Amino acid sequence: MASSSTTSRARPRMPRSFKQRFSDVLTRLLVDRLPHAFDQMLKWLSKGQVAVLLISLILFFLPLVTLRPNIWQQGIVAAIVILLGRLFLHLEERQPEGRGSELLHLLLMALSIMMTLRYLFYRASYTLNFDEWIDTVFSMLLFMAEMYGVMTLILAYFQTLKMRNRKSITLEEIPVAQWSTVDIYIPTYNEEVEIVRKTLLGALAIDYPEDKKQIYVLDDGRAEKYRDRRIQLEQMCEELGCTMLTRDNNDHAKAGNINTALQKTNGDLVLILDCDHIPVRGFLKETVGFFLKDKVSLVQTPHWFYNPDPFERNLFTQGRVPVGNELFYKVLQRGNDAWNSAFFCGSAAVVRRSHLIAIGGIATETVTEDCHTSLKLHSKGYETVYYDKIMVAGLAPEKFSSYVGQQVRWARGMAQILRLENPLFNLKLKLRLSQRVCYFSATSHFFFGFPRLMYAIAPAMFLLFGINPVKGLGLETLAYALPHIILSMQTNHIPYKRVRFSFWNEIYEFAMSFQAGIVTVLALLNPKLGTFNVTDKGLVVTERSFDLESMRYLVLVGAITGASLIAVPFWLIISPLETQAVLINALWCLFNLLLVSAACLAAFEQPQLRRAHRLPRHLKAIIHSDDSQLIGETIDISESGAQILLDDWPNIPDEVRVELVGDFGARALLDARVVRANATDKLQVVLAIDFLNPSRTQLDDLTVVLFSDVREWYAQHRTETDKPFQSLRFIATSLRRAFRDLKPADGMKVRKQVRTTAKLFWEEWGEESYTVKVIEWGMHDLRVELSGIPALQLDELQYSKPILALLIDPVIESRSGDVLPYSSDPQSLLVRVESIDVLGSSSTQQPQINEIEDTLRVSVELSFPSSFDRQQRNKIKEILRSLS
Amino acid sequence: MKNPFHSLFQSASPKVKSKRTYSNKWRSFLFLIFLSCSISLGGVMSVVRAQTDPPAAIETFPKNSVEPSSPNLSSPNLPSPNLSRPNLSNSSFALPSPLPATPTVAVPANGKYVLELNRSPLVGNRLRLESIYDEARLRFTRPRNWKPQTVKMSLRYRHSPALYASRSNLTVLINGTSIGSVPLNQPETKIGTAVFDVSPDLIQDYNEITIAALQNNSPTCTQDPYDPSLWTEVLPDSKLVFDFQPQPIAMDFSRYPYPIFDTLSLEANQVDYLQPQTIDETWLTTASRFQAALGRVAVYRDMETRLISDIDQVKPSQPLIIIGTPESQPALKSLKLPLSLKDKQILDGKQQPFPKNVGLLMLTTADENRTPVLVATGNGADGVAKAVQFLVQTPDRQIGTGNVIVVSEVAPVPSPPLRQWSGYLPVENRFQLRDLQTYDRQPYKDVSVRGSHAPALEVDFRALPDDLFVPGSSMTLNYSYGAQVNPLTSLVEVQIDGVPLAGSRLSSADGAMRQSMKIEITPDRIKPNSKMQINFRLDPRERRSCSRVTDQQLWGTIHADTSFDLKREHLSRMPDLKLMQSAFPFAAPQDLSSTAIVLPQKPSPQDVALMLEVSARLGRLSRSDALQLEAFRADKLTPEKRKTSHLIGIGTQAEFPFPEAFEADGFALKNLLSRQRGQSAVQTLPDREGVLKEIVSPWNSDRVLLALTGQTDTGLDQVSHLISQDPLFYQLEGDTVLISANQPNLSEPSPDAKQDFNLEFLHQSPRREVSTTSQFERLLIMLRNNWFVLAPGLIAAALMLYGVAQLYLKKFTGQEQKDG
After folding, report:
1. Which of A390, A408, B309, B605 minimizes the number of CB atoms within 10 Å of its CB?
2. Are B24 and A69 an interchain contact pair (Cβ–Cβ within 8 Å)?
3. Whether A663 is catalytic
4. CATH superfamily membership of A752-883
5. How far apart are CA B436 and CA B423, in angstroms?
6. Range of the domain at B523
7. Which residues contact B382 (CB under 8 A, 6 or more apart)?
8. pLDDT tens digits for range B279-333
9. Which one of A135, A183, A220, A700 is the catalytic residue?
10. What pTM did the predictor assign?
């Protein structure tokens, strides 16, 4: 046994070292040698010539694309290529981010494109079904959907070819007097004043010379119903010391609002913030430096939401799955930036006023004014910068319907741009080809709707009606399709692994498919259609409900898909010839059903558990209790409470004062109630605290600490990476999670540990009283130990839960057991019995009332009735202070 | 293996250092232009070439352009015909007037001919009739010059003893007219004989005998139509006996090829050629063309060819063919010709000699009017060639009449495209049923069949020998069918060579019009001799009492717009004698213009006979409007011709025109009756075997050389048999065939030639792929045959794309930085 264990331990080591060496050699070959060889060989070619060579090579390799070996040969080729893709991924995993990873990505891309072309050729040559007109129609529709898929794949490849990682340009070396002046615009319409206030506080806290920064709230809420809100807003601006700008019409919504303000203010740069985007302190210092280059007209930073979006909340991803926009901000924008085509995203961006005015202000023709504006900037030859650091904390739409509304607006706007500007072919735009491709990719992105639905419907159509959009669907089709699909997944895994998990794309697309499909088609037909709708934010979902309105058609698709699975056994029995096609369609249906139901669940609104959203921030927290101070660190924190990690179990009462310190030293002091305490694995203590009635100033301080005083938002780096099978399993189990009962957290109560005695009186006992040991004392309840009480009386106490009188002795017991004099008179309090735990029988030792009856030693939980709170509160506090 | 870029780069690198940019930029630019052009051209070429002619055809065309008015003889060592096209109105010549009477072949004595039924391949050993009602059909022809006087049919038959005599009988019909019935009432195993008189008027050129049997084994109802006891056999010695009176044969070109070749003849046609004094290229070429033309007329009919050296050797009523000028064929003098002959010159009506480039065709008789004679002559070689060319070009031949034709001009017929083989699948990949031809070379129309056991529509679906079908071929069958079919049991099905491809149920009891069914055609099914059968299996919904089928209301139609979509490439692996069965590659193009037959310097009669057999075979296997076959003596073959043609070499080992053929690997004949195979060498005595060997031409790897040889003349005779006799010829395979007769007496080859000869097939030379398609397709084919290069190829492609793409990105970033 021993020998086997040693050999088994020794054995893996040998191959591992070999494996490592193999990987190293291969990596070096692929990442260094091969590119170097090509560089040497072709260095006498110019850029254009290399491009021609590339195209010639693709033509040259066409025979490899058009070849159709028999099925098992293709199967072997597929297996080899997929394994090779896996090997490349393995090599990439061992690479630090950067050039090596980028090159391996490129290599995988080349392989993937070859396999995709092979699939396309096979699909177009052999599997289009023109037997019946209905087959023809569906076959062509599905093929077009697939063509769209391939197009987006290629566009995505292009956008991730290179990704730019910008470092901020410091302003330190430039005299402050020469720094650009910045206007901060906060456009609002109908959002809650409280939300705007936070943003305003963040803007005020931005670290930039006071005379160089001016803050404007641009209120567009002119309607009568918003009159009160506007008055409140005015008061707030006055209170906080910033300017409120209004206008006398609502033309062109947000774009018009900003354009009007541009006329009224005169800073060099404009920072545009949505009213729910709270900026961090360093926003301007990190971004303004980029404007030292004259051509730069825009610096965009990512948007980030600190609350869960509907997908996160309703599918219970608990932050473990990257949210919808992470792919765009962490990968695609960086990829765009590499081609100088990073887009403006409407908020969290600094714009150079002169450039903006040169293009006639923010674009107003479409409902996605932001992207359209940057298109205009680019076609003027200006540059944009994408700086990948999260510097705003925003609010995602809470409800699925508002999420849909937002996406629909984007879809419509992007389709409008595509229709109006035609970025790919419009020669009037002075764009480079790469920029054209990037804009085409962005503006065509939202056309996924109908293709996505086609994927869902195709297998169901076969199983239900025998409409066969893919002729000869069988293992051979799989042998072509799988390498295409798997290699594209493998290729995308490299840039996407931390920003978009496998199959989530499909869920996002399914959830939006109908709306996106209709809206984009309408926008193509009539680009003038549709108005700017303001996304509702900061709503609270209180109970479970299903948003059938938004999901009606997808539910139908899901039902059809589910129903078609019922047909599978009949097919297998009646038509054994088509077993392969039936099984493949069935699996496809099953897969679709999974994704569609997950997408539907996104509209199954789950109640919000907390009043405010918890941010997993690690802030220094100082707990002030009496004269002592305990220093801990927050695990997470919201505007209503926090969890604080302490090293030792504290002896504190359940109401304390907490001081929170931000990353740059901003402080907030709040009263808090300790709700419970839990021990961690490392025997540290986690206190859950709720802030008690914070005042306006306290809340403002807290806002600054929470959202502004941030060095780096925790969402900047995600540690989880995509694992396709886990991702699929996670999606598959989302149904179970969605219907799980929500349980409140449990933990121990926190009260002050004390050692004193008291007397307990009850009417039923008459004159008699019991002396009890007080063990724990809190502001709302206490625990005492009582011995010698007869079991009979105990039942009565437990049953009736009466109110008792508690007389605190004027003496307390010290730790050593000495009795110390208590300064003042005995105090009496009214308490209610909450629960009684029997600790043990004590009949033999202390017969007090009746020697015959059994007496017990019990621990009693008593609470101070809330009805007497006003009268007793100060007394309780005083006793607490005297006891410590 | 050196990197292909390596050398390029090495030559370029020193200059990179010295001259800096300009020249290199130019060079790289040119390189890229070349690269992109070549690739795009490759793509275009593959499209263009697939639609037009492959290179071989391009090579054949210039010949015509060099000698535009020489449609017939292009060989440079032949006398060059008149280059300018004479004005047709001036080209008429005075003919002797009055013209001599049309010669007539004398009437032989009355004859009797016994046509035994076993002549029909259908009958073989017996003709069996089964089931309740069954019929057998046999066809026969009546020779042209016969006038039947009495015709009797003698039927010998046996039948099952179980037959119920009053409800069983045998009826014979000729051309639809009953000639008699006999009850099937013979006692057990007794052979019945019935003799029917046939009215001689019933007999036409093409005749059909129908023997129909009604068989019942019960007085009321024969329950089971498939009862094995329902049988009648007509014995093969049943016969048709003719008493006929031969008719005189008027020698007139309007009926040509009759009387030289009678397509209605019941016997093998015999043709004699008179050997000229000196065998030169004119004679060789014209004779081989003429023989090939006869082969086209004969197609499947037997034909025997003899070469005679003296006109006295002719047999009565065997046509004689004399080709040549009066000088080379002195026998012309002894014939009774319509035109006069003086000083070895043929004179016209004004007693002037015809110009040398005018051809003359005459029909006359010899041997006391017993032998029809065809004379193709002229005062010069050019004229002779023209005369023969007139006969071998179908459009010209059809306008001939009378017994003298003066051929002053023969319009050239351009070579058909390389792959346009009449009777085979069309060149286009998409075509319809109406683009195919019926057996009598008519396009198909909608075909309807009736009845429950209607015969299948059989369509020649012959792939070109070098067609290589790839997956994805399909056909769309358009059909209609009538009402009253039983939808449960009726179907339409498509077969190729009897192997079903697909079928479809006829699902509507009310019939349906213009249904269509798409059928995938398995790639390896279609062969050069394939036939497609489209079959309606129609079953009535109800049967009459006694299970009798009423089926005449059932019908099915196959529409002529049934379409085919074939995916194919052109590739053949040569040498392969199996392809020789369809005369490939010699018959590409079909006018045989790319083939040259080469004989020894001094051809022996065996050589010439073999040449005639080969020509006849090539003629049988090809169809076109004209013939451009050529024949040469070894020393007259130009190197140019040798390079551009498929060669057929004829001669014994010692005399063989291409000694190179014996140097190839594998089996070879050596001097002095010795043989060599690989490294083994033996001497055999006597070596009577004939050898037929195909190798890739040593002068052009896209051409082949077919060697017909032997150690002795006997060997050549064997080869002659191999070429001329179908049962032997259609066994050809491999690249080398050794043939020897099992019977010493070779002059009487038996119809069952298979048993009389001993054939050995050898596969020796490495085969080379000869493709008539573009390089791109060749690459595809190569890849398809070696699929395992696919994965490495894909990986290599990915690596190369990766290498170049990263360089591009690097250059792009570099420029970006420069801009920035």
Report:
1. B309
2. no
3. no
4. predicted glycosyltransferase like domains (2.40.10.220)
5. 7
6. 430-566
7. B73, B78, B79, B80, B81, B82, B356, B357, B359
8. 899 999 999 999 999 999 988 888 889 999 888 888 888 899 999 999 899 888 8
9. A220
10. 0.68
